Amino acid sequence: MKKSILVLIAMFLFAGSGFSQSYPGTGKFGLGIDGITSSPNIVGKYYFTDKIAGMIIAGADFDIPGGDETAGTEKVTGTDFRAGLAFMYHFTNTKVSPYLGIQGIYQNKKEGGFYTAGTAPDARSYLNAGIIFGIDYFFDKNISVGIKETVGTDISFERDIPKQETSTKINTNTVLTARFYF
Q1: What is the per-residue pLDDT across 105-147, written as a single tens digit (0 to 9) for each?
Q2: Over 50: is that where the pLDDT of 53 sits?
Q3: What pTM, to 2 d.p., does this model score?
């Protein structure tokens, strides 16, 4: 975490060194990923102006347990669906482009596994919302890589099985990003 923040600070300080005009600009659409973990989000990014952009975020994860259920148990496939929006302001429109913005992601997650009949957990909904900041490095007008930090809240909504109340956590999240612009 500390290394990620130090890298972001260093990239912000050296942002002025990106003199190349390799920025995609107004009206450009990029498709890519946020995160290089086992289940990254697919992201569509659109530049409304040279400095203001919006993103549509979507992701899914499936946990399919192996084996067969035994008598008195049920096999449950785990699912994790994510969808969200983000808006950001880019401080420069050069090769190195730091940004600041807001992001919100809704998530619906159900744990997979084998459960005694009638005890399979309900799906649980989450809302992750916060401030994002990061930096994009443009190799040319069509390809960028970057790092994005989110500082915000993670709201876990109540569910019946097992009984869990709504809870809120303050969290941070760092992801690597990659985009291809059309």
Answers
A1: 999 999 999 999 888 899 999 999 999 999 999 998 899 999 9
A2: yes
A3: 0.81
The structure tokens listed for 89 are: 């302001």
Instruction: Using alpha carbons only, give the angle 54, 82, 166 rounded to the nearest 5 degrees.
Output: 110
* Residue 106, SS3 per DSSP: strand
Contacts 24+ apart (CB under 8 A), 102-105: 102/129, 102/130, 102/131, 102/132, 103/55, 103/57, 103/128, 103/129, 103/130, 103/131, 103/132, 103/150, 103/152, 104/128, 104/129, 105/41, 105/57, 105/129
Closest of 135, 109, 134 to residue 122, by C-alpha: 109
Q: Give the pair of three-digit tokens for residue 90.
A: 């880019």
For residues 2 and 172, give the distance between their C-alpha atoms in angstroms, rounded to a whole number.
11
CB atoms within 10 A of CB 101: 20
Take residue 113 and report the two structure tokens written for it.
């596994």
